[in-house]
Write a structure and sequence with these properties.
Belongs to the drug/metabolite transporter (DMT) superfamily. Small multidrug resistance (SMR) (TC 2.A.7.1) family. This protein has about 110 residues and is mainly alpha-helical. It contains 4 helices and no strands. It has one domain. Helix 1 crosses helix 3. It is flat and about 45 Å long.
């Protein structure tokens, strides 16, 4: 269950990051509320995952997948630039997440 909780937490993490952009400095009410709910949801499900996972592994995977998901959706939704160097760096994050998953052994 801890991997499922972590996956749900990362969905909330991506929603939080994208929502923060939409709040325009927390001056827009609905996006601000969605962003705060997403932040709370992400932290809640991360806390459930950390019942079993080491905090270093769980948190790093949460932020790593959240970062990559945010980048992908930022490119698709906001037309942000994706250069070769960025792809290489994000690939390193993905490999690190996979390595941590394998090394966690749970």
């Amino acid at each position: 269950m801890h991997w499922l909780y972590l996956a749900i937490a990362t969905v909330f993490e991506v929603a939080f990051a994208l929502g923060t952009n939409a709040t325009k400095g927390f001056t827009r009410l609905v996006p601000s509320i969605v962003t705060l709910v997403a932040a709370a949801g992400g932290i809640y499900f991360l806390s459930l995952a950390l019942r079993t996972l080491d905090v270093g592994v769980g948190y790093t995977i949460w932020t790593g997948i959240g970062s990559v998901g945010t980048v992908v959706l930022g490119v698709l939704l906001f037309k942000e630039r994706l250069t070769g160097a960025r792809v290489l760096c994000f690939g390193a994050i993905v490999l690190g997440v996979i390595g941590l998953r394998v090394a966690a052994g749970v």
